[in-house]
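Figure caption, in words: inputs first, then the predicted bound structure.
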Amino acid sequence: MKKIFLPLCFVAAIASLQSCKMKNTAAAVQGDADSKVYVAPGKYDEYYNFVSGGFNGQVSVYGLPSGRLLKLIPVFSMFPENGYGYSEETKAMLNTTNGQIPWDDQHHLELSQTNGEQDGRWLFANANNTPRVARIDLSTFKTVEILQMPNSAGNHSSPFITENTEYVVAGTRFSVPLGSEDVPISSFKQNFHSTASFISVDKNSGNMALAFQIVLPGMNLDLSHAGKGPSHDWFFFSSYNTEQAYTLLEVNASQKDKDYIIAVNWKKAEEYAKAGKGKKVPAEYAHNTFDEGKQLATSVIEHDVLLLDPKDCPDMVYMIPCPKSPHGCDLDPTGEYIVGSGKLAALIPVFSFSKMIKAIGDKQFEGDFQGIPIIKYEAALYGEVQKPGLGPLHTEFDGKGNAYTSMFLSSEVVKWSLKDLKVLDRAPTYYSVGHLMIPGGDTKKPWGKYLVAYNKITKDRFLPTGPELAQSAQLYDISGDKMQLLLDFPTIGEPHYAQALPASLIQGKQVKYYDINKNGNEFVTLGEKKANVVRKGNRVDVYMTAIRSHLVPDNIEGVSVGDDVYFHVTNLEQDWDIPHGFAIKNNPNAELLIMPGETVTLKFTPQKQGIYPFYCTDFCSALHQEMSGYLRVSPK
Ligand code: CUK
Ligand code: CUA
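Bound structure (dinuclear copper ion present):
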C-alpha cells in the first residue's frame, strides 16, 4: 500500500489549528481603515458584492466598502419572506425531474461578460447538490431561469463563463453512471463518468440551453475557469480523485502525487457538435423560465442531450499533471497563466498557455488517461511559487501583474508576482479562508482596489450567537504594496465564491416598478372596480387589488371547507418602493410580497370552518394597519 504523503508542516499546522486557542487579533487593523470603509448616511457604496450563500441556497448582496447587507435573492431555496417557491407564479422555478426541490447548496457566482469585461446584465449561480444553474436578472434582482443538468451529480465546477458569455459551464463533482443504470459501485472505473456541460446563452434574452456534454473518465471535477485573450477557445478544470476511488476517499483518493488540470478546447467541441460527431442520447432534465411579461414561471422537461466523447473527437481534451488534489483553477487577466492550487501541495504551480499549445504541437506527452493525452508537467509549466503558505485554494488577480491566493490551513492571503513568482506580501485572515474576490478579479479587466476574503471559521470575531457563529468576510485594501485589513462583516449561510462590480454598471438600470398596463398575468385586476370573486366547482378565484390603504374585496364569503382558494393580488401602485404584502391566518403556505404593478397568487385550501383575517404585511402607509379583511369559511 502506498503511504499518504503529507509534509510535516501540514501535520504541524493542522495540529496547531486544533490545539491552540485562537487569539482575537482585532488590533491588526491599523491606520485609516475606518475612514476607508465609512459610507456616510445617505451615501452609496462603490461596489455591489454578490456573495454565494452555500447551504442557504440564496445569494446575498452587500455594498462595498461598507459591508452593508442590501438584499437576499432567493435562488435555490424557497423564501417565505416574499413567496418565492410558494406563490403559484414561482413554484415552477424549483421544479426538477424529481419534482419540486426546495433547497440546494449554492457555491459559485459569475457575472456575465462582454469581451472579457463585466457587462452588468446577469448573474449566474450554481447548485452543488441537485445539478442546476440559475440566471438572475440584474435589473430586477430576480431569479429568472434555472436549468437542470442530466448525467451529473454535485454540480461544483460551475457556473463559469466564456469571455462573451457564449457558454456557461457545469462540471460534475461526483461521477455517476450516464443515465440511471443499476450498476455495482465497484464498477466505478468502467461505468462512472464525469461530464462537462456546455450551456449556451442567448445574446439578447440570456436564455440558456444545454448545447452539449463532454464525457470524461470517472473522477471529480472541482473548479474551472474559461480562457481569455489567446486562450479564448479553451476551458480549464481542476480534478481530484483521479485514482478513481469510490470508497475511503481519504486513503484511496489522495495517494497520487499529482491529479490533473483538464484543458478542453470548446471551440473544437462546438465544431465536432456541428459536424455530427456527437451522440444524441435520451436524458431528462427540467428547464424553468420566468416570463416577465406573463409574470409566470413555467417548467418544461427536455428529453435528450448531445454527448461528445473525446475518443471520437481528437485534439479536444488534454490533461496536465497538477500536484496533490487541485482545488482552484484560475486564469490571469491576460489569459496566459493558469494557476492550479493543490490543496495538499507545498507550492503553487503556474502553467503557461503558450507552452501548453507548443507541448501539444510537439506531442510532449507522458501517456494517456483512459485515452486522453497527458501533457508532460514540465512541458506546460511556467514555474512554481515556492513556500506560498499552507493549503492553497483560490487565486484572484488585480490586473497589475499580481495574484492573490487564499491559504486555508495557514489562514492567510498571499500576494505574489506573476512575473517572477515571488511572494510579495501576506496578510492573516480570521480564520481558514476559502474563496477570495477582487472586483472583476477573474476577468480581463479587474477593478482592483479591494479584496474580500470569505472565511470558514469566525471563532472570536463577533459577539457570540450560540453554537453557530456567523461566517465572515474580510475586506482588504490592495491599492498599495501591502494589503491592509479594513473591515470584518458577517455573511449569511456559507460564503464560497463571490463577484463584485462597480455600482454604476447596474445602478441606473434598476426596474423601479412594473407598468400595470403591461401586466400580462392572466389573473391581473386592473382597478378596484374590477375586483371580484369567481367560483368554478370547488375552485375559487379571488381577483384582489392592493393600493394604499385597502385590499379589495375585503370581505369574502361563500367559501367552503376544502375549496381551493386562489388569491390573485395585484398591487396597483405605480411608484418605486411601495410593495404590499399579503398573509392569511392559519394558511400553511407563506406570505406574498407584491411589487408595484405586479400580480402574485397565493393558494389556500382551508381545512376548518371559521373566520380568517387577512392583511398587508408591509408597513406601507399611515393606514397600513387598516389594510386588512376577512374570509369566511363555511361548512361544506
Ligand atoms: S469551494 Cu467553497 S472554498 Cu465549493 Cu468554490 Cu473552495
Ligand atoms: Cu399595504 Cu401595508
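Residues 546, 580, 616, 618-620, 624, 627 surround dinuclear copper ion (ligand 2) (CB under 6 Å).
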